Amino acid sequence: MKLYCDPISTTSRPILMFLAEQDLPVEIVKVDLLAGAQQTPEYLAINPNGIVPFLVDGDFRIGESAAILKYLAIRAQATAYPEGLQAQVKVDEAISWFSTQFHEAFCVMTCYPAIGVPKGASPELLAALSAYGHDHSPRWLKVLDQHMLAGQPYVCGDQITLADYLGLSYVLLGDFVAYDFDGYPNIQAWIARMKARPSFLSAYAAFETFAGFIRGQAQAA
To answer: Are 109 and 118 within 8 A, CB to CB?
Structure first.
């Protein structure tokens, strides 16, 4: 198997962290997003969408982070995607929640404007998006803190699941803007718990360097 990805990609990091804890024969192929490698003819021949991550397993090809995570978890028979219909649906629900409600307010609006996304947007639009995100993100952070993580160490219960790997990558986008998670003790404890896993260092080293660079630019501006 080959995983085409970039560690600075929000949707690549959950897979890299998960794979670091599994015994699966997956070759990691870096697609340098900052260099535009995702839009080269060579990569577009592999994935016409021109995005990462993308998994190739023989003749089988699949994109989208959540789908790749589920495929790899099933291949590895990993407990991170538990057996049983209801247990799996709860993980699916949490993944969908992170990818929709939370992603829009916190990632797209609050964090991505700090790196000039959407590309080509005026400074005024980026500032407006950021302001909207900071106003509306607390609603979803409160849900995560007071409901999803209340009384349990992980998003779906006592055991880590795919929802934790995916959700962590979204939440840590707050590093771009030095987001203050004071007032969300369960989120803080969950982040610390996830960062304590040995797999975190290998999956997030490049991102932490990149996020530090972004914060430094903001402070210098």
So the answer is: no
